[in-house]
Specification:
6 helices, about 70% helix
Length: about 130
């Protein structure tokens, strides 16, 4: 492995470790997430792009859904939890980012399940949802 690749992977690992720490996720989550990310170079590059630029490339998609679509879906869920007075991600942007990439990794393995969730689960923005 060349030095630049090792350096890039080390930087990404440190970024992921920091996200996990700020998101309140433990060592087990970090290990599982990092292993999944290492197995999916395309998603790792997407996260590295975000790490370097602070914006999304949206080059990775599953059935037309990108990490940004997943984040919008998460925000919708966050609003629903607020409506029900439940604790959630709150204003923890690190957790939202981490969970969006975690969902993207899982979605690549089980696309039907997650497409169904994205299309069927929404917040409380419409009458008679609850």
């Amino acid at each position: 492995m060349d030095g630049n690749l090792q350096s890039g992977q080390q930087r990404l690992y440190e970024f992921v470790t920091s996200l996990c720490r700020h998101a309140g996720e433990g060592e087990a989550f970090l290990r599982e997430f990092w292993l999944a990310l290492r197995e999916d170079e395309e998603t790792a590059q997407e996260l590295a792009y975000y790490m370097d630029r602070g914006q999304f490339a949206c080059q990775v998609s599953v059935r037309g859904y990108t990490v940004v679509d997943i984040m919008v879906w998460q925000i919708d869920h966050f609003k629903a939890r607020l409506d029900r007075r439940e604790d959630g991600m709150g204003d923890n942007g690190d957790k939202m980012l981490l969970m969006a990439f975690d969902t993207l990794l899982k979605m690549k393995k089980e696309p039907e399940k997650y497409v169904r969730l994205l299309q069927g689960e929404t917040g409380t923005d419409y009458v008679d949802k609850y």
